Request: fold
Amino acid sequence: MTEALNQVRQAALDLPETEERLSHGQPTFFVAGKQFAQFRDNHHGDAKTVVCVRVSSFDEQSMLIEADPATYSKPAYLPSWISINLVGNGVDWDRVADRIAASWELAAPRRLLEAGGR
Reply:
């Protein structure tokens, strides 16, 4: 878990104006007060280690789950988000970082995006 959290933390905190704080007991990352990523380890006993990130639509969520159900799933309590599995040797950390950055872009205020974003 520690390595996965460290990878998520580095990817999230490398983005402009982000902060980490606990939300519902989980390490959660915010930009301008809006949540864009949440690390979960055995959340409510689900035995999963994931990072939850925003997606642009329910269609994108469905497409990701259909294309790679071993990697993506629907997170509890975050209906328009996606969970990314962080367990195993096959984790593509570059892809995880890219999904975290895309989620940041969905949450970031226009002024940050207009200033060049990430």
